[in-house]
Amino acid sequence: MTSEYCVLPKKRKILIVYIATLAGSLGPIAGNIYVPILPQLENVFAASRSAIAGTVSVFMAVFAFCPLIWASWADYGGRKFLYILPLSFFIIANVLLASVPANLVSLYILRVVQAFGASSVMSVGAGIISDIIEPKHRGKAISVFMWGPQLGPVLGPVLSLIAIGDWRWVFGFLALLGFVVYLMILFLLPETLRFLVGDGSCLGKGYFVQPRIQEKVVEGYSRPPKPSLVGYWELLKYPPVLLCSINSGILFATFYGVMVTFASVLQDQYHFTDVGTCLSYLCPGTALIIGSTIGGWLSDRLASRAKNYVPEHRFSIQIAGLLISMTGILGYAWTVEKMAPVHPVFVFTFLAGFGMTWVFVSTTTYLTETSPSQPSANVAIGNLMRNMAAAICTAIVDILIDKMGFGWCMTGLALLDLIGICFVAILLKWGPRWRAKKTEPSE
């Protein structure tokens, strides 16, 4: 083995990161392109608001659990195949959604298949980043990779404008986008799992790769444990993974409470048109991109300045991010409750998104470092907590608003982020000790 972590040329690493980023955008775009057209779907499918909202909840629930299936196998047997197989289901589901007659049962079933197919890309993509980028510089790469999930709130609502002519174009577009990404993965993305390809010396110098199912095993790299429920249970019992994942879940639930109410607030209270509502999602979406980029840069800056680097150094910026996000949600709660002008609503949704993604980038980077042989599995657990929390929030937020009022409901969601601040303090103090007790096979 060479002393270099990965010998692939910088330009090729950049290409791999951007392919993983684009692939990572598929699920979030599929989820967010759908939210602004919910009122339209109520009419098309002659269904209640709660029945159509249920298709969002089932998508988020499947998107939460299925990465657990893909991620552990991606850590054990390879990354590329665990991209290609699920993506086929995603493409097929969107083709059918764009073509079959409008039926509520079919919509539910195909949304489940759609989420199943898109669910591998987040955790597997994080594993790819950990394969080719050494830990001290991983924050910036993760911040770029996080653009993928964050492009959902940015592009999804804007792209939903194509549904103004016909709602089926939403799914036709997703099928075409999925197919383009499928071809890029097939011909431009090499296998990166270090157990199979080591430091990348065996991958050659060209950009194009020959499609094949399995790479030969490179000697000198330990194989991760075989996927099992026991293995996941061991990761869940591992405090750094558990606390990071719960923290992410709580934070994402609070932000998703903003996102799922945003369209209704703009249309019912501020009388925005469908086009204006779709374009308004650019505000919190842009905040996600900016927050991720700055957060990743600061995270690596802290890591590079440390004399004796430990992954917990990345957490020192999280308390600021949590407070910014909490301020945004509290401001959103009471500007809407008091029927203030619309401009503060945009300011506070921007702050909510900026603070959330600032936290996420360092959390995701940490999850790839705290148990290096299972980065995809760690990120999958984080994804599980986030999307479970989002699904629960989507299902109950309207009920809570009816019972508590908009301002107090959103205030309650914002105050949940105080739990995250406690978790950050715990990890800063005890995280290094917990990691020291966990024996990892040497690479």
UniProtKB/TrEMBL annotation:
Q: Which UniProt keywords apply?
A: Membrane, Transmembrane, Transmembrane helix
Which InterPro entries does the record cross-reference, listed alphabetically?
Answer: MFS, MFS_dom, MFS_trans_sf
Looking at the UniProt entry, the stretches that span the membrane are: 15-38, 50-70, 82-102, 108-129, 141-163, 169-189, 241-267, 279-303, 315-334, 346-367, 379-399, 405-428
Matching entries from Gene3D superfamilies are given as: MFS general substrate transporter like domains
Cellular compartment(s) = Membrane
User: What range(s) does the Major facilitator superfamily (MFS) profile domain occupy?
Assistant: 16-437
Provide the topology term for how it sits in the membrane.
Answer: Multi-pass membrane protein
Q: Main location per UniProt? A: membrane
Q: Does the keyword Transmembrane helix apply?
A: yes
Establish whether keyword Glycoprotein is in the entry: no
Indicate what this protein is called per its UniProt record. Major facilitator superfamily (MFS) profile domain-containing protein
Record organism: Lodderomyces beijingensis
